[in-house]
């Protein structure tokens, strides 16, 4: 019963459509009608600008972090935080508050990792930034960061973490299918460094 309560709470947390809220409240725009139509941080950056993009990124990360630490906050020792965190990511991808059309799982997945392993989160951020700098593709940086993180957890011999990271990375890659096709066709938008 404990697991069910935490899973529901995590899913509802993940379902908060940050990009939609920031767009409508701050800019009177529905970002689903602009850019890629995605509710995530990347589309927010493109449609609403840097400040809005940073805000959405931070909040989407914290959704995953809060979900992962809920069992700790409520001293539910039999509940595995990473499992709960997975449902926040599912909520982010398929939010009940936005007709089940959400983001691509990147920020919220990283937030889950931040909640249980801050050092690994730091490695992820550094990996993402380096790959992004070299390739200028946000989508490719997101997917490769997931794969690198899996390798790191294998080296650390943390089987539970490896399994969960593999699931989260599978989510990220699945949600980026269209991006993969565009990268292959060389039509994927690149970011512009100032």
UniProtKB/TrEMBL annotation:
Against HAMAP family, the record matches this protein to:
PlsY
Q: Where in the cell is it found?
A: Cell membrane
- InterPro entries, per database record: G3P_acylTferase_PlsY
Which membrane topology term applies here? Multi-pass membrane protein
Self-association and partners: Probably interacts with PlsX.
Catalysis: reaction(s) = an acyl phosphate + sn-glycerol 3-phosphate = a 1-acyl-sn-glycero-3-phosphate + phosphate
What is the protein named?
Glycerol-3-phosphate acyltransferase
This protein's source sits in the domain of life called Bacteria
- Molecular function (Gene Ontology), one example: acyl-phosphate glycerol-3-phosphate acyltransferase activity
Instruction: Mention any one GO cellular component term assigned to this protein in its UniProt record.
Output: plasma membrane
Which EC class heads this enzyme's classification? transferase
**One Pfam family from the UniProt entry?**
G3P_acyltransf
Function noted in UniProt: Catalyzes the transfer of an acyl group from acyl-phosphate (acyl-PO(4)) to glycerol-3-phosphate (G3P) to form lysophosphatidic acid (LPA). This enzyme utilizes acyl-phosphate as fatty acyl donor, but not acyl-CoA or acyl-ACP.
Its taxonomic placement starts with: Bacteria, Bacillati, Bacillota, Bacilli, Bacillales
TM region(s), chain numbering:
6-27, 48-73, 79-100, 112-135, 147-174
> What's its EC?
2.3.1.275
- Pathway named in the protein's UniProt entry: Lipid metabolism; phospholipid metabolism
**Keywords for this protein:** Acyltransferase, Cell membrane, Lipid biosynthesis, Lipid metabolism, Membrane, Phospholipid biosynthesis, Phospholipid metabolism, Transferase, Transmembrane, Transmembrane helix
Q: Which organism is it from?
A: Gracilibacillus thailandensis
Any single biological process term in GO: phospholipid biosynthetic process
User: So what family is this one in?
Assistant: Belongs to the PlsY family.
């Amino acid at each position: 019963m404990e697991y069910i309560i935490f899973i529901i709470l995590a899913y509802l947390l993940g379902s908060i459509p940050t990009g939609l809220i920031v767009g409508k409240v701050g800019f009177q725009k529905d970002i689903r009608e602009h850019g890629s139509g995605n509710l995530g941080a990347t589309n927010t950056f493109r449609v609403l600008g840097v400040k809005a993009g940073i805000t959405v990124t931070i909040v989407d990360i914290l959704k995953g972090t809060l979900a992962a630490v809920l069992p700790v906050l409520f001293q539910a020792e039999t509940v595995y935080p990473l499992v709960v965190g997975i449902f926040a990511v599912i909520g982010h991808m398929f939010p009940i508050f936005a007709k089940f059309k959400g983001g691509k799982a990147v920020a919220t997945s990283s937030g889950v990792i931040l909640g249980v392993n801050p050092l690994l989160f730091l490695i992820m951020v550094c990996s993402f930034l380096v790959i992004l700098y070299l390739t200028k593709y946000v989508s490719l940086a997101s997917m490769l960061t997931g794969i690198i993180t899996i390798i790191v957890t294998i080296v650390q011999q943390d089987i539970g973490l490896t399994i969960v990271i593999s699931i989260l990375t599978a989510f990220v890659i699945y949600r980026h299918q269209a991006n993969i096709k565009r990268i292959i066709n060389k039509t994927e938008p690149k970011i512009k460094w100032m």
